[in-house]
Design goal:
By secondary structure, the chain is an alpha+beta fold. The protein has one domain: Muramoyl-pentapeptide Carboxypeptidase, domain 2, CATH 3.30.1380. The chain contains 5 helices and 4 strands, in the order αβαβαββαα. The longest helix is centred in the last third of the chain and has 17 residues. The protein starts with 13 loop residues before the first helix and ends with a helix. It binds zinc ion. The site of zinc ion (ZN) has 4 residues, from strand 2.
Amino acid sequence: MPIKSLQRLHPEYRDIEILISRKVRNEGLPLVVYETKRSHKRQDELFARGSSKARGGQSPHNWGLAADRVLVPDSTFWAPKYRPKHPWDMGVDEDRTEIINPMVFEVWKQYGRLVRDAGARWGGLWKKPGQLIGWDPFHSQAHNWRKLKIRDGEWWNGVQ
Ligand SMILES: [Zn+2]
């Protein structure tokens, strides 16, 4: 089961994610935290399943330096016609070159700006030329996560 608590995040990054959650609330975006800290064991399982390209220790989630948020499809926010199909809907086609659901797409765009304004990096920017959105719009992470994880290696150790 994914850990959803912001309190499990790295002490030097936690406040940024708390700020993101506050902004999400203030702007009324239908998003909810899905996962924050991820154990090395769970990371290895996701890798084995093909759900992630990172093994245990290779993802900022493993160090409490990233968070994922997903859509709330049954929120009253949505116009019935634009209700997302599932929490991971991006509002685009498979190639991410065409908008299928403009309301969903706009939520992710707004979320991306909000993540950037809060001082984190947004996974929705990781795209190829021609694509409208990156492959991981759910994801936000610390800009300097590789540095932070080394400096505070002691902190995470044992906190699986
Ligand atoms: Zn993530």
